[in-house]
Amino acid sequence: MGRLLPGSRPYHDLPNVPSLTSGGLGRLLGSISSTLLTRLYFVHGGSNRWLSTMVQSAGFPLLLPLLLHLSRLQNSRPFSSFTRRHLLISAAIGLMMGINNFLISWGVSYLSVSTSSLLLSTQLVFNLGLSVLLVKQKLSFTNLNSVVLITLSSVLIAVGSSKDRPPGVTRQQYWLGFLSILGSAFLFSLYLPLVEMAYKRVTRYKTVVEMQVVMEAVATVFAMVGMAAVDGGGGVGGVVKEGREGFDMGVVKYGLVVGMSMVTWQMCFIGTAGLVYMTTSLSGGICTTALLPMNVVGGVVSFGDEFGGVKAVSTVDTS
């Protein structure tokens, strides 16, 4: 049995649960793929930010086979031990998750993958502060050094913004995307310690999956209400029309992009939930930040994002 990270739960409390390696691998593949697919949607004519928001959580039914498997292993039914407290906490966090997803959609629609990924690294700064306040995480020189470097990276990106705007994006739109990603980074950093607090009374991974299903169901309802209510977002009926007329890769590839986005976002979310449950919210934030330079490389390779001196320095700072 390998060593656990500080503050992590002993494995004998986690029977038949994916290991930290599996959770990390899911987070790795999901993080890179979901970000690239979301940007691909906007680059090739997609414009419905509410759809992009919904796609991030609407794949929650994919978690049901895992939930059924865990229920069979424990000779129980899904949600049989799910309390009102679990429901209320999951619903509240799910609403916050929906808002976070919406901010990501706005940010990625206006920013390159490399820029949005580097800005998202600021979540570690927020995460450290909130972890100290909410879950009494101890500070260290390494933690504080990471905060300084990541803050410097964001300042460098802001200073170099005039050379980094994608074609067709105005300065105002760029800054809207910039602030949206920073807002998303803050909400994600708040999400991590909140779920760690919620998991302190959870003894089975089955309950973690149940809470994740409820969170994402609430986030999906939030996005569906927004998509139906806001005519500027195209409405629900505008999705099919966009696939046929707006997306320049054709309706089949439109469906594939949307479908694969749902799958990869689920890998990202359940991987994060598993990491936080088995370790700490700060460990989850560190793992997330460590993966972001790979997103930067993915953006450069896939979309030809500009990778000048400012981004190079920022990428090294977050690595």
UniProtKB/TrEMBL annotation:
GO terms for cellular component: membrane. It is a multi-pass membrane protein. Signal peptide: none annotated. GO terms for molecular function: purine nucleobase transmembrane transporter activity; purine nucleoside transmembrane transporter activity. It is found in: Membrane. Keywords: Membrane, Transmembrane, Transmembrane helix, Transport. This is Probable purine permease.
